[in-house]
Amino acid sequence: MKFPSLRNKTQIPDIRAVPNWFVILGRLDASNYDVTYSCEEFFVVNAEAVKSKNGRFIIVGDVWLSNRSQLLQNLHSNKEYTDQELVAHLWEIKGKECLNLLEGMFSLCVWDNSQREVYLARDGVGCRTIYYSSYGKSCAIAPRLATLLPFHTRQLDLVALRDYLCCAFVPGEQTLWQNVRELSVGMVLQMESSGETINYVSQKLFWEPREDIQNAEESLIWHGKQLRTLLDRVVQESLPVDAVGVYLSGGLDSSCMTALAAKFHNHPVHTYSIHFGENCPSELEFSGLVAQHCKTQHHILEITASDMWDKLPLTMSYLDDPIGDPLTVPNYLLGKIARQDIYTVLNGEGGDPCFGGPKNQPMLLERLYGGVNHTEKNLVTNYVNSFKKCSSDLPQLLKPEIFAAVKDKPFVFANYLHGEESYLNRLMTINIKFKGADHILTKVNNLTVANELEGRSPLFDRRIVEMAMQIPPQYKLAGAQEKAVLKQAVLDVLPREIIERPKSGMMVPVQYWFRHLWQRRAKSLLLNRNAEIAPYLNQDLIKQWLNYRGDAWQRYGVKLWLLVSLEIWLQVQKGR
Fold it and tell me: Which of 126, 508, 166 is nearest to 320 (CA)?
């Protein structure tokens, strides 16, 4: 398909979702599909179905387990099992209780031949995804949202659209499509087919991050040592049997992953950094320092404005829901060059949500100084506004009938913002459960898989998250010092310049590019009367943004990228 508003009439290839398996519970004309397993009302398409020893349970899924050796000991077996076979045999012994034994990344569909029931399960932090949609007398289940397109209508979920405009991703169980759900992280869902309808029997969390502060009397140094011991173990479990790569920005999180990988790995360690041209601020000074310190094979990629614009349609085609983060295209392009050297790449994602990164500071300051205006409603509003996207623009940006339909709908964050936990840990829980699962990890997974890479995020390991929720809050965000305990944990393996520098973040110069290079193309894309966003958004306001009228806070570029990403994602879906 072609996008006439994109330069060079960019051609979008017919991208097949990977993995492309799906399951149907209910009725299916099997002659139209590559059915690899079927049993009455249960059909597996495009995937190998693994049976438990007694044949009662059938497992289909996307599984990588970091604690394989421990699980094999639990089975008292010397046999070589695949990760999927391990899950099948454990499920036979313990049922869904075995999910608490699994460390790693997984999304599962389990068929019980005896009870004629299906279980869906997703790992506790959301490294993998699984979606489902009921239609007629059946339910379609898949790890990729695009795989379900033939089984549902293409009507947008307006609340999900509102949330995307506020956050740059779609949080929680909703997706941008009506009647299509994403299984929540740490959730197991039980369903059955009665022949006439799909019954959702039960839905239960088997794990979620919870505040459990321990050893509060101990020092920062003590907690740093405990964290370091666990980090060493998790990073070693994440290393492959051959060369490994690390996405290295020069910040604390990616730098500590680089240092630990270099310390423990006996094979080459490749590091990959990006910049946006010599006239743009970059982190190359710091990433180069870390690469030299750790003696890695360092690779640097320059990403131009043309790269960003031209590769956005391809990048959007690899995502499930749209993600309006300007780092989506750099993530895809970085994976493309990394694949020339390696098959497995680590990243530093998770440091901010787990250890009190600086993005929590505005909310904490508002909590401290908000005074009498600090009501429950304001708490949610302030959290949504902290994303600094389009939340305050919604009354003008959304068409009146769309805004009226969504303005009073609750946000999925609301229940998590109130509670007995420390305020910092409440913010961390939300960031892990929603931004981590629905933005960071799904982006990392899809854009590494797109390049035939295995992406791993050690700082998002469930055991790391659990320890983070046990560490006293003052050791995570200590005054103006963010991630104090993580810095303490890796003090001996990183240059002091990295430990002491404040976080700056990877700033993609979309503000400059929209104003000076992309304005004409963006107008053609977003202001077209046949644009996919036209039925929902006020194009007069978008025109003001494109003309940079009243941009006192220099935020129009970020908002426009979010809208361009949405428009192109919708066009990609329409052409599938």
Answer: 126
Instruction: Read off the pLDDT of residues 430-449 as tens digits, 9 standing for 90 and up.
Output: 999 999 999 999 999 999 99
pLDDT per residue over 364-421, tens digit each?
655 554 544 556 668 889 899 989 999 999 999 999 999 999 999 999 999 888 878 8
> Does residue 463 contact residue 410 with C-beta atoms inside 8 Å?
no
CB atoms closer than 10 angstroms to residue 270: 22
User: H/E element holding 351?
Assistant: helix 351-355
Task: Give the Cα separation of 466 and 209 in Å (integer).
Answer: 6
* d(C-alpha 52, C-alpha 111), whole Å: 11
Rounded Cα gap, residues 6 and 151, in angstroms:
30
**How many CA atoms within 13 Å lie on the side-chain side of 308?**
28
How far is 483 from 351, CA to CA, in rounded Å?
8
CA gyration radius, the chain: 24
User: Residue 348 has what DSSP assignment?
Assistant: -
Half-sphere exposure of 334 (CA within 13 A, CB side): 29
Q: Note the pTM of the prediction, 2 decimals.
A: 0.94
**Residue ranges of the chain whose pLDDT lies below 50:** 1-10, 369, 371-372
What phi and psi values does residue 378 have, to the nearest 5 degrees? -65, -30
